[in-house]
Amino acid sequence: EVQLVESGGGLVQPGGSLRLSCAASGLTFSSYRMGWFRQVPGKERDWVASIYIGASSTNYPTYGDSVKGRFTISRDNAKNTVYLQMNSLKPEDSAKYHCAAGPWVGSWLYWGQGIQVTVSS
């Protein structure tokens, strides 16, 4: 059974930082593209960032426009974990953040339960 478990969320002031983690089990982690998404109640889920391993074991991160330059996605294949470092947080970053795993572009097969991030003073 594949499981993705997020951690590291919480309440932070505007301008602050948080690091989310997503621990994966039950899959060949290094073979999967990993991603972060976020959702606010009543709105569609938005893609935040994703990362895959390409040739020569090079990591290729990509980001949504709203987080580019502030968020960094990374992965540790030895720990089967993907991270999302979030800096310069804004109130509009408040959402439930989910990690996801998929075998190729646009195919997200597995999802975590999500973790709340609230940016407020």
Overview of the structural elements:
- It is globular, with a radius of gyration of 14 Å.
- Strands 2, 4, 5, 6, 9, 10 and 11 form a 7-stranded mixed β-sheet that branches. Strands 1-3-8-7 form a 4-stranded antiparallel β-sheet, with no helix packed on it.
- The chain has strands spanning 3-7, 10-12, 18-25, 33-39, 46-53, 59-63, 71-76, 81-86, 95-102, 110-111, 115-119.
- It has 121 residues and is mainly β.
- It has no helices and 11 strands.
- The model has no long low-confidence stretch (mean pLDDT 95).
- It is 0% helix and 52% strand.
Main attributes of the structure:
4-stranded antiparallel sheet, mainly beta, 0% helix, 121 residues, globular
Describe the SSE topology:
Elements: E1 3-7, E2 10-12, E3 18-25, E4 33-39, E5 46-53, E6 59-63, E7 71-76, E8 81-86, E9 95-102, E10 110-111, E11 115-119
